[in-house]
Each structure stands twice: as C-alpha cells, then as structure tokens.
UniProtKB/TrEMBL annotation:
CDD domains: CAS_like. GO terms for biological process: carnitine biosynthetic process. Pfam families: TauD (PF02668). InterPro entries: AlphaKG_dependent_hydroxylases, GBBH-like_N_sf, TauD-like_sf, TauD/TfdA-like. Its cofactor is Fe(2+). It comes from the Bacteria. Keywords: Dioxygenase, Iron, Metal-binding, Oxidoreductase. This is DUF971 domain-containing protein. It comes from Vreelandella rituensis. The keyword Metal-binding applies.
Length: 372
C-alpha cells in the first residue's frame, strides 16, 4: 500500500510506499518533474529555470494509481512520477560489496571476451564497481597491450609521466615505485586534481623473488574504524591534510581527508599516501588526536584482517578502484628474475558512464527479446 500526506502547508509531501518512507519538498518534485515540459526527453536536461520557480510553490493534489504518483502543483503544472524510481533517488548505492581478507572475492575477466563482447565488458565493469578490483587474464604481453581495452571504456588519463608507464626498478628512480623496496598500502596520486579514478596494472614479467601485490578495502577499513573507534573515525573525516609531489619538472599539490564522506554521510573515498602527505601545523592537541587516529587506520589497512595478497602472472592485469582500494607490494630481489609491469589510469566519469550505458543497453535488448 502507498499513502501520501501533504505537510507544511502542502509544501512537502510524505510518502509511505511498501515499507519505505520519505518526505519530498514540493519544489524538488516540481524541478525534477519527469515530463516533456520540464525535462528534455532525449537528454534529461532541465528545460525550466529552477531558480525562477516560486519559493512558496505547493502541491494542490496528490494521487497514487498503478504505482504512479500524480501531482498538480500550485503553478498549475501536472506531472506523474514512477514511485519506485522516486525512491531510487533517495537510495544509497547498495551494489558495493565490502570485504576483508577472509571473504575477499576474486573477480575475474577475460581480455578477449571483454574486448569483443558487450555483455562480458559489462560483467567486468560491474565486478569492478562491486568489489573495487578485477583481475583480467589474456592481456597481450606487449608494452601497450592494455590499450585496446582502455579504448573500449574511455580515454587513457595522461600525467606528467606520460600515458602507460613502466613499473620496474630503474637507476636514479624519480619515484619510490621504481625501486625494489616494499610499498606500504596507499592510494595513488592524492596530490592530483582530479585524482585518477582507476589504476590499470599489467604484468609483462614477474619472475623476481617477492613483489607480491597487496590489496585492502579502504571502505571496509573506514567502516571498521567507525565501529571500533568513533572518535578516530570522526577525526579522519574532519582533518584535511595536503599531499604534494615534486620533481625537476613537476609540482603537484591537492588536499582532502583520509576518509571522505558523501552527501549521506557515508564513506565514499579514502586517501592514504605516507610518502606525500603533509599535515598542516594544527594545534598540538588536535595533532595528537589526528596522529592517533591515523595510526588506528594504518593498523587496519596493514593488518592480516584486511590484507589480500596476490602475485600477477605475465598476461594478467589488475584494475583497481583508486578511490576505494589501498594497494602495496612486498620488496623484491632482482636476483630471482625480472619484475616488469606497465601502469595506466582511467578516470571515473568515463568508466561509470560506460558501465551504466552498457547496463541499460543490455537490459533494453533483453526486454525486446522477451517481448518478441
């Protein structure tokens, strides 16, 4: 059953729909009206100037029929909402599956299938969105072997290091990634604006002793910190360090909290980069709280509870959500052989767009097939 109740001089509407309850402002409903007078049918872009709608706008009538909410506003506009879609606007994304080491998934995809088949590409992108990473096999073992699959999704993000770059030990390394040392869990490039959304790490050879990759789900770490130490969690969502990278030709700096919240107050992004973090000179008592909170978070992301270890084989590629996963590696010894990986970045907007469009296209195709 669905019940609608006008509130606040009919400038708000309370809706109870199959156990879900929401309150909606009349102005919000008016500017989001899903009709051809308000939204362009092809682009979904708004045709009315929302800032010119009267602030006193109210709802003259509201009726529910066959799962649709029919509204008449005080400016004499009529529209109808699909109730399920209306409540989807309020929902927090339930499709992300947080994990720890004991129950970590191993999402896999095949390079050739994702390259040639939309359903396989869609499955790969959905797994990446859900689990924060995916392991792709069958990638051509050549320098730019990942490029054709990147081209299926969106443009390669170019940085001061170029496009697809080497990850291997070199003399006079300009970044610690290019040494043999182990790397603590971190997110990449928090000193950039915008931060690269997805890391693509392609293995050409990995015969060196050591060099295992480590992954930790940063959103799970944030959730556990909130449960176990709310004060530390609050501190890491509040304090905003800066991050900086410099070399002879580059000077990059940005800022943001170690745990960033979305509009619902839920963790949506983590940052952690011991090598590039610069904490401002806060009052000493506040720094004491921050340092303790950071240590608590560090112990989570480096502990056995959350740390997943894997070693990429030649022809495998790891795609990681750089807003969610922290990654690192163990130290390696070149006496055992060569470790040569290639790395590129793809931004979040193009990746999310491709995933959503494929989902809609495949759903439409399936619906048409069932009705034929």
């Amino acid at each position: 059953m669905t019940y609608v109740t006008p509130l606040a001089n009919r400038r708000r509407l309370a809706i109870d729909h199959h156990g879900q309850r929401g309150e909606f402002a009349a102005l919000w409903l008016r500017e989001r009206s899903p009709d051809g007078e308000t939204l362009d049918p092809r682009t979904g872009q708004r045709l009315v100037e929302a800032a010119e709608l009267p602030l006193t706008l109210s709802i003259d009538s509201a009726e529910v029929t066959d799962g649709r909410l029919y509204l008449h506003f005080s400016d004499d506009h009529h529209t109808a909402f699909d109730l399920a879609a209306l409540f989807d606007n309020q929902a927090i994304d339930p499709s992300k599956r947080l994990w720890n080491a004991a129950d970590a998934p191993r999402p896999e995809a095949d390079f050739a299938a994702a390259l040639e088949n939309d359903a396989a590409l869609s499955d790969m992108l959905e797994a990446l969105h859900r689990d924060g990473f995916v392991i792709v096999s069958g990638v051509p073992e050549e320098a730019d072997g990942m490029q054709p699959l990147i081209d299926r999704i969106g443009p390669l993000r170019r940085t001061n290091w170029g496009g697809i770059a080497d990850v291997k030990s070199v003399a006079n390394a300009y970044d610690l990634t290019m040494t043999q040392r182990g790397l603590e869990p971190h997110t990449d490039n928090p000193y950039r604006d915008p931060i690269p959304g997805y890391i693509w790490l392609h293995c050409l050879t990995n015969a060196a002793e050591g060099g295992e990759s480590t992954l930790a789900d940063g959103l799970m770490a944030a959730r556990l910190l909130r449960e176990r130490d709310p004060g530390a969690y609050a501190c890491l969502t509040r304090v905003t360090p800066s991050f900086r990278y410099r070399d002879a030709d580059t000077d990059l700096e940005s800022e943001g909290p170690l745990i960033e919240l979305d509009s619902h107050g839920e963790p949506v992004r983590v940052r952690y980069s011991n090598r590039t973090e610069r904490v401002p000179a806060l009052p000493p008592e506040e720094l004491e709280v921050y340092y303790a909170a950071r240590q608590a978070f560090y112990r989570l992301i480096t502990g056995e509870e959350l740390t997943l270890q894997l070693k990429l084989e030649p022809g495998q590629m790891l795609i990681m959500d750089n807003y969610r996963l922290l990654h690192g590696r163990s130290a390696f010894q070149l006496a055992g052989g060569v470790r040569h990986l290639r790395q590129g970045y793809v931004d979040r907007d193009s990746t999310a767009s491709r995933r959503r469009v494929l989902r809609q296209q495949l759903a439409t195709s399936q619906a048409q097939g069932e009705s034929a």
